[in-house]
Each structure stands twice: as C-alpha cells, then as structure tokens.
Design brief:
The chain has helices at 11-23, 34-43, 60-70, 85-93, 106-136, 144-157, 173-182, 201-209, 226-229, 245-257, 283-288, 294-300, 317-327, 338-346, 352-366, 374-384, 404-422, 427-434, 438-448; strands at 3-7, 28-31, 46-52, 75-80, 98-101, 163-166, 191-195, 234-238, 259-261, 268-270, 274-279, 303-306, 335-336, 371-372. By secondary structure, it is of the alpha/beta class. It has four domains: 3-133, Rossmann fold (3-Layer(aba) Sandwich), CATH 3.40.50; 155-306, 3-Layer(aba) Sandwich (Rossmann fold); 311-384, Helicase, Ruva Protein, domain 3; 402-448, Arc Repressor Mutant, subunit A. The strands form four sheets. Strands 2-1-3-4-5 form a five-stranded parallel β-sheet, sandwiched between helices. The chain has a five-stranded parallel β-sheet with strand order 7-8-11-6-12. A two-stranded antiparallel ribbon has the order 9-10. Helix 2 runs parallel beside helix 3 and helix 6 (144-157) crosses helix 7. The protein is flat and about 100 Å long. The chain starts with a strand and ends in a 6-residue tail after the last helix.
Length: 454
C-alpha cells in the first residue's frame, strides 16, 4: 500500500493533514515544496498527492504537470486558498483528481483521499488483469510451426487485411485472432467474437446487423448488431463455414461495402471493421460441395493462417503442460516427472491444446502428488474418454515396416521393458501399474526373453 504525500509550504498545514491521515490509517509523507515532493516520488511508493497550488521555487500547476508526466498512476488532489473556477478547470484538465478550497474541510479531504485511493486500486487491478489476460493468451511453443505462426501473426497484425484462420477444434484459432487484434492499431477498439455455428439462421441477420424496434415479434427495442458493435475494432467470425448460404451473401455484401441496414430499418450504417474469420473445415471442399460461397472465400482468405494440431508439434507439449499447471489458481503447484512428460508426448491429443489444458486441470485437482508420475497421467488419459491412449503416428515409424503380429510383439516387448525399468524391475509394482497379474507378467518376461537391467 502506497503512502499519501502532502506538498505544502505551510508547516502547520503539513503537520495537521499528516496527523489526520495517520489517524485514518494511512501512511503519510510531507514535503515543503515541489522539488522536495518530486524527489520523494522518485524513491517512495505513493498512491495520492495532496498538492498546494501556491508553492515557492516551483508552482503547484508545474508540479502537477511533472507528476502526470513522470508518475501518471499517482492521483493528485489540488488544494488552494486562492481558488478560482479557471484554476480548478485548468487543474482538472491537467489530470488532477479533485480540487479543494482552503480552509480544508477534514471530511471533504478524507472523502477525496478515499476516492482517489479507490481509483488507484482499480487501475492497479485493471493493469493486473490485463497482464493476466496477456499471459493467459500467450501462444506457447518453440516448434518451427508455432514460430511460423507467431511471425505470420506479427506481420498480418500491422495491416487491416482480412485473415482466415484454419485448423482443428482446440488448436487456438480464437487465440490467434485475439493476438492479431492486440498487436494491431485497432487494439484500443473492441474485439467482438461471433460463433456462427451457434446462431440459428432465422436470427443471424439480426445478430450481425442489428434490428429496429418492431421489426419482428420479439424486437421490443432497437439493437445494435455485431458489425456495429465492432466499429473501429475487430470482428471475429468463428466457424464461418457453418453459416447458411443466405447469411453468407449478406456478410459478403457487408464486408465489401462496410455498410448495411439494420433489420427493419432504412438508415444505412457505415462501419470501420477488420474481419478475421475461422473454420475447422476445408473451405475448398465446402465450395465444391456447394455449401460455401467462393466469392466470400476469396474475400476472407487474404492472409491464410493455419493453426497446427498438437500432434504436429509434439515438442511443445512439455511447455504447454507446465504453462497450464502454473496458471491453475487455487491449486498447489505441481511438477511433471520425466515419465509423465513422455506419456503426454506420446498421446495424440485429438482435442488438441484445449484437451491438454482440461486434462492438466483434472490431473492437478485429482492428484495429490507433488511430482505427477507417469502412472497418474496414464491413468487419467485412459479414463478421459473411456478409450485406450492413442499413440501419435510419428511414434510408430519404427514399426511401420513390420507385419501386424511382429509389430504387436515388438511394441509389447518395448512397453514391458519401459515399465519394468521405471519400477526398478519390481514385478509386483510393474504388474499393478500395467493392469496384469504378476504371474502373467512373469510369463511375458520369459516369452520375450527380457532380462533385468535391459
């Protein structure tokens, strides 16, 4: 918690205000002129400054300008015994939180300080949330594919060109769209996301373009559409391929002209919107099947951006898993063992990054291990969808030239050796971890000629 700094050239006022503030539970500092006050601001944590206008050496208005230039987060309450409306207006325009006349009202001063502190706290919280959001929205990965994605996002964000993001469900298409918006000159404007698949065809025109009161049965008031809401910002059309052909034609016209009429309205509304669209479908196949307009495809596909599936960037799984564990609020921090990372990396993750995120949350909640073991990861993967873990295709390359029976035996032998080694060749623990009886494990060890220490 920062202090309250009182800058006033009258010793009696400095001492009185300091005592009042300390009685209210604040930490108070004092300075006799502007230079001394600015020196304190450089070395002390200060939330609010109570600043007299008439000061020696450096006038209060000049001190206020210096505070706003060098310490913009510090709220300043200006006080004066020679106040005028022009002076008050000037101080507020320069960024003063409040202007109070002398002689000071204790109640008014304490209220102003309390409100200024509340605003300071709110700004700090907003900054923290923005940092949290930015950290949460990071595109994690060191693979060549993700490096290429980040480079393309950085390049495309500089322009207003439309971007078409493709990729499987859970690969982070909306995350990419938000990143494009945040890095663009439109970052100060709104980011409006629309799930086209979730909107009935009968309502999509109203959702996108808005409606006037009485334009249909439930239109009890005028409503802005998503295009209008996204004015000066970015409109993200997710699952664009699930939009009907009729709706596609209306979107195409709006994108071409950046103007439209609300449903039931006659006034033409002009907007300035950047459009980013996304789909998990192959739009060229959709066009060939007559389900997607080719002209809309060309309008949207100015900059194509493909988000790779997680199985295509296996080397990013450890960093992603650790990132999700770190973000889990309210849970003890977990670590992943080397064996656990191996199991995570061998799984195909059909739900991609979204599935991995949910999986790490489940493991963190359900496991009481400080270091999450391979057995725990295997246990939850096997039970996540009732299916056995799926091995990524690139992990099967060494078996691809074998016949099925040979591949099965080679895999089983390798699997047994791996688990025996993990458990120090303890038969009972190994049998329990892989779900067989010790006698069956002994038989398999003999069958495959496995020896301790392999």
């Amino acid at each position: 918690m920062g202090a309250i700094l009182v800058i006033d050239d009258e010793p009696g006022i400095r001492a009185t205000v300091k005592d009042i503030l300390e009685d209210e539970g604040y930490r108070a500092l004092t300075a006799e002129d502007g230079y001394a006050g600015l020196d304190l601001l450089r070395v002390e944590s200060v939330d609010v400054v109570i600043l007299d206008v008439w000061l020696p050496k450096m006038g209060g208005i000049d001190v206020l300008k210096a505070i706003k230039a060098d310490h913009p987060a510090v709220e300043t309450i200006v006080v004066s015994g020679h106040a005028s409306i022009d002076m008050a207006v000037s101080a507020v325009k320069l960024g003063a939180f409040d202007f109070i006349e002398k002689p000071l009202s204790i109640e008014r001063l304490i209220t102003a300080v309390r409100n200024a502190r509340a605003l300071s706290d709110l700004r700090l919280e907003n900054a923290r949330l923005k940092r949290t959001k930015a950290e949460g929205d990071d595109i994690i990965g060191v693979s060549a594919k993700m490096t290429e994605v980040r480079e393309l996002i950085d390049q495309s964000a500089r322009s207003d060109a439309r971007v078409l993001v493709t990729g499987e469900n859970g690969t982070g298409k909306e995350l990419a769209a938000r990143r494009i918006h945040e890095l663009s000159a439109r970052s100060g404007g709104p980011f409006v996301a629309v799930n086209c698949a979730a909107m009935p065809d009968t309502l999509i025109e109203s959702e996108l373009f808005g409606h006037e009161k009485g334009s249909f049965t439930d239109a009890v008031a005028r409503r802005k559409g998503k295009f209008e809401t996204a004015h000066t910002g970015t409109l993200f059309l997710d699952e664009i391929a699930d939009m009907s052909l009729s709706a596609q034609s209306k979107v195409l016209r709006a994108i071409q002209e950046m103007r439209f009429e609300r449903l039931g309205g006659e006034q033409t509304i002009e907007v300035d919107v950047r459009v980013v669209a996304a789909t998990n479908k192959d739009l060229r196949q959709e066009i060939a099947a007559g389900r997607f307009r080719e002209d809309l495809f060309f309008r949207l596909n100015v900059i194509p951006l493909r988000m790779p599936a997680l199985r295509e960037r296996v080397e990013d799984i450890p960093a992603l898993a650790d990132f999700f564990l770190e973000r889990l609020a309210g849970q003890p921090r977990r670590r992943l063992s080397r064996g656990a990372l191996e199991v995570l990396s061998a799984y195909a993750w059909p739900g991609n990054v979204r599935e991995l995120k949910n999986f790490m949350e489940r493991v963190s909640v359900m496991s009481d291990e400080d270091e999450i073991s391979a057995e725990t990861v295997e246990h939850f993967i096997a039970r996540s969808d009732g299916k056995a873990p799926e091995v990524a295709p690139d992990r099967l390359d060494t078996l691809s030239d074998l016949r099925l029976a040979e591949a099965r035996e080679a895999f089983e032998r390798g699997f047994l050796v791996h688990n025996l080694r993990k458990h120090g060749y303890n038969i009972a623990k190994t049998a329990e971890s892989i779900g067989v009886y010790p006698s069956n494990l002994h038989a398999k060890i003999k069958k495959f000629g496995i020896e301790a220490g392999e």
